C-alpha cells in the first residue's frame, strides 16, 4: 500500500512517498522545494499571498505525484509558520479550496513528537551511545525555519521531554543579519539571543550525562552535504554522517566571509537556502557548545517519516 506525508514548513515544503508492505516501509520518493511560507511571519504574523501561491504550486505538483503513485492514504501537516500566522486558517482554507487538500496544523509538541519518532525508529541500536548498559538518552534536534524542536527520549522511541522554541533560521536571519555578509557585532547579538532563548531547556537536557545528539531537517542535512562536498544531494551519504563541532565552526567561518551570491555557489549548499544557512549554523553551534557536545549524528529520517507512521496502526 502506497502512503505519503507532506510537511509544510517555514522554509520548505517536503514530500515523502513510501510503499508499506509486510510491516515494512520502503521509501519511493522524497522531494523538497523551498517555498518560504514563513517569510515575514516573525515580524508581521501574516502569511504573504506570494508565499501562499508558491506553496500552492508546489502542493499541486505533489498532488499529481500522489496520483501517479496511486497513493491510498496521505497526511499533510502545517508546522511553525502556519500555526504562528494570524491568517493561518485562511491559508488552510486557500489550499483546500484550490486543491481539496486538508492540512493538519500541529502544535509545537506534536511536531516534536513526530520528528522524534521518525528519527529514532530507524536508528542503529548498535551505536555505542544506544547500548542499554550506558543508559544513554537521545536528543533529537530539529532546526527549522521558524522554530527549533528539542525532543529528549530513549532508544525505544519514548520521548520524555519535548520543547519547541520559536526561533529558527528564517526568523533569526530576518531579525539580525539579513541576507548579506554578517558583521561580528550582529553575529554576537544573534548568539546572545540564541543562548538566552535556549538556556532553560539546555539546563534540563544537561542533567543527562550520557547523550546521543541526532540532527534532522534542512539546516543540519545541508551542513552534512557541505562537509561531504556533495555536488548532487545523496540521501544515503547524508544519513548516518557525523558532524563534529570543529568542522561546523570551519563551515560557519567560511560562509561568513562570502556574500549571498558567493554562498549560492558553495558545493553542497542549495542556493535557495544560502541566505539563511548562517543563522541555522549558528543555532546548531550554540546548542552543541551549551550542551558540551562535540558531535552530532545526522539523520535523513525526520517528521516526514513520523507522519507516515501515524497512518498505520502498528
List its salient traits.
314 residues, alpha/beta, Nucleotidyltransferase, domain 5, five-stranded mixed beta sheet, 11 strands, globular
Describe the structure.
The chain has 314 residues and is α/β, with parallel strands linked by helices. It folds into 2 domains: 105 residues, Nucleotidyltransferase, domain 5 (2-Layer Sandwich), CATH 3.30.420; 180 residues, Nucleotidyltransferase, domain 5, CATH 3.30.420.150. The chain is built from 13 helices and 11 strands. The strands form 2 sheets. The protein has a 6-stranded mixed β-sheet, sandwiched between helices. Strands 3-2-1-4-5 form a 5-stranded mixed β-sheet, with helices on both faces. Helix 7 crosses helix 12 and helix 8 packs across helix 12. The longest helix is centred in the middle third of the chain and has 22 residues.
Question: In brief, what are we looking at here?
Answer:
The chain has helices at residues 41-44, 49-68, 80-84, 88-99, 108-120, 169-177, 184-205, 218-228, 235-238, 245-256, 260-263, 277-291, 303-309, and strands spanning 2-8, 12-21, 24-34, 73-78, 104-105, 137-143, 148-153, 159-165, 211-216, 242-244, 295-298. The protein is of the alpha/beta class. It folds into two domains: 2-106, Nucleotidyltransferase, domain 5; 123-302, Exopolyphosphatase. Domain 2 (Nucleotidyltransferase, domain 5, 2-Layer Sandwich).
Amino acid at each position: 500500500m502506497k502512503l505519503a506525508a507532506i510537511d509544510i514548513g517555514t522554509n520548505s515544503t517536503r514530500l515523502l512517498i513510501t510503499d508499506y508492505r509486510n510491516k515494512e516501509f520502503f521509501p519511493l520518493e522524497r522531494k523538497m522545494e523551498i517555498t518560504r511560507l514563513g517569510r515575514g511571519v516573525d515580524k508581521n504574523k501574516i502569511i504573504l499571498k506570494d508565499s501562499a501561491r508558491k506553496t500552492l504550486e508546489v502542493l499541486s505538483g505533489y498532488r499529481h505525484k500522489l496520483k501517479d503513485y496511486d497513493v491510498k492514504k496521505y497526511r499533510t501537516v502545517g508546522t511553525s509558520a502556519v500555526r504562528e500566522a494570524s491568517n493561518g486558517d485562511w491559508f488552510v482554507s486557500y489550499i483546500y479550496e484550490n486543491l481539496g487538500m486538508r492540512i493538519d496544523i500541529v502544535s509545537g509538541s506534536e511536531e516534536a513528537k513526530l520528528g522524534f519518532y521518525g528519527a529514532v525508529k530507524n536508528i542503529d541500536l548498535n551505536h555505542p551511545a544506544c547500548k542499554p548498559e550506558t543508559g544513554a538518552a537521545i536528543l533529537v534536534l530539529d532546526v527549522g525555519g521558524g522554530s527549533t524542536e528539542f525532543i529528549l527520549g530513549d532508544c525505544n522511541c519514548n520521548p520524555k521531554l519535548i520543547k519547541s522554541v520559536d526561533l529558527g533560521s528564517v526568523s533569526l536571519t530576518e531579525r539580525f543579519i539579513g541576507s548579506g555578509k554578517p558583521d561580528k557585532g550582529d553575529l554576537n547579538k544573534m548568539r546572545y539571543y540564541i543562548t538566552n532563548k535556549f538556556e532553560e531547556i539546555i539546563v534540563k537536557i544537561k542533567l543527562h550525562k550520557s547523550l546521543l545528539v541526532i540532527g534532522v531537517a534542512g539546516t543540519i542535512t545541508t551542513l552534512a552535504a557541505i562537509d561531504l562536498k556533495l555536488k548532487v544531494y545523496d540521501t544515503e551519504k547524508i544519513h548516518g554522517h557525523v558532524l563534529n563541532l570543529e568542522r561546523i565552526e570551519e563551515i560557519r567561518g567560511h560562509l561568513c566571509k562570502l556574500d549571498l551570491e558567493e554562498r549560492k555557489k558553495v558545493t553542497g549548499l542549495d542556493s535557495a537556502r544560502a541566505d539563511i544557512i548562517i543563522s541555522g549554523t549558528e543555532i546548531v553551534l550554540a546548542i552543541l557548545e551549551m550542551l558540551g557536545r562535540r558531535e552530532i549524528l545526522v539523520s535523513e529520517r525526520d517528521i516526514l517519516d513520523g507522519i507516515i507512521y501515524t497512518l498505520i496502526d502498528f
